[in-house]
Here is the input.
Amino acid sequence: MPEQARPGAADVPPSDADPAAEAAPARKPDRAQYGVCAFLALVGALVIFDATRIGHALNTADPIGPKPVPILLGVLLLIVAAVYAVDVARGGAGEPEAGEDVDLSSPIDWRTVLLLIGAFLVNAVLIDRLGWVISGTLLFWGSAFALGNRHYVRNLLIAVALSLITFYTFAIGLGVNLPAGVLQGIL
Here is the structure.
């Protein structure tokens, strides 16, 4: 009878239990991730609170009314916040950005962040006075400028087109009238 060959170390399949992985210390959860959980829970609670204050629809053919959808969304936000908090407590964490065009050691570009915040604030302040088309144009143009695009005239034309498209899409497609402001009667 021929002697059977004994398997060598290379022939043995690796086991599922890796002693090095078991000896690794558990990661301490990042408190900022708990902040995201708290923020999601707060938004969910606010959505539910606001949904309970919605009045009844005037249309008697709709027995349900407008409340269920925001309540459902608020409950889903609370569930996501709870599941995320459990995941963080168990050591889960998102992977850092691994893109080749991102330098993780570089500081935050506060100039860009502040310019974007400024564009949104200008839009929020001027939307009732000037109307969506003008304030939206400033928002879109300001955002392009903040993100580094320096084709001023082209960006202005694109911003006007986007503002008009969104204005008429909301008005005609959704039946929601955005403020016309100083262009009332022209649009």
Observations:
- Residues 110-183 form one domain.
- The mean pLDDT is 84.
- The first helix runs from residue 19 to 23.
